[in-house]
């Protein structure tokens, strides 16, 4: 199986804080599957580290109020392009992220409160028929 994976879950220090969220369960999947690492924020031209951002009123804004929606959108389209290029029909993405979160994302208050919704990339992938799961859902999907 070919799986798109948030690069931070594979140990790449590309998160907003310059760190990763390496998950051994996900890196172990490399033994059985082809994993395609993606970081939509970096693909969209954002630096690492960078100010935290959340979705507010349909736009992605940093904690300092800078609108980075276009960067997130551009990066999401690059991730989708890679999924199509390699034939990936599933993506394991970082939960709660304004880019990769699926089902629950931070609510835009920068208080770590959650709300129902999808990140920019997760939504685009879903709209294009790609199953998106978070790292806590691996067992539910048989990984």
Summarize the structure.
With 143 residues, this protein is of the alpha/beta class. Helices cover 24% and strands 22% of the residues.
Beginning-to-end CA distance, first to last residue: 11 Å
Shape: globular
Q: From the helix content, strand content and strand pairing, which structural class follows?
A: alpha/beta
Output the number of helix runs: 4
Q: In order across it, which strands form the biggest sheet?
A: 2-1-5-8
* Helix content, binned percent: 10-25%
Poorly predicted runs are none
Domain module count: 1
* Biggest sheet character: 4 strands, parallel
How would you portray this structure in words?
The protein has 143 residues and is α/β, with parallel strands linked by helices. It has one domain. It contains 4 helices and 8 strands; from the N terminus they run E-H-E-H-E-E-H-E-E-E-H-E. Strands 2-1-5-8 form a 4-stranded parallel beta sheet, covered by helices on one side. A two-stranded antiparallel sheet has the order 3-4. The longest helix is centred in the middle third of the chain and has 18 residues, at 69-86. It is globular and about 40 Å long. The relative contact order is 0.19. The model has no long low-confidence stretch (mean pLDDT 97).
Give the SSE map.
Elements: E1 2-6, H1 24-27, E2 34-38, H2 40-43, E3 53-56, E4 59-62, H3 69-86, E5 90-93, E6 104-106, E7 114-116, H4 120-127, E8 131-134
Parallel strand pairs: 1-2, 1-5, 5-8
Antiparallel strand pairs: 3-4, 6-7
Helix pairs in contact: 3-4
């Amino acid at each position: 199986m070919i799986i798109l994976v948030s690069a931070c879950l594979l140990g790449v220090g590309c998160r907003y804080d310059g760190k990763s969220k390496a998950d051994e369960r996900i890196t172990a999947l490399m033994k059985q599957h082809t994993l395609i690492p993606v970081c939509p924020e970096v693909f969209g031209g954002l630096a690492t580290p960078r100010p935290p951002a959340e979705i507010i009123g349909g736009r992605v804004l940093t904690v300092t109020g800078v609108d980075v929606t276009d960067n997130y959108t551009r990066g999401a389209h690059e991730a989708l392009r890679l999924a199509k290029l390699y034939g990936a029909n599933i993506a394991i993405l970082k939960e709660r992220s304004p880019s990769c979160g699926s089902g629950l994302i931070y609510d835009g208050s920068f208080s770590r409160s959650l709300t129902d919704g999808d990140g920019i990339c997760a939504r685009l992938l879903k709209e294009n028929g790609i199953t998106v799961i978070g790292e806590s859902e691996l067992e539910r999907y048989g990984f």
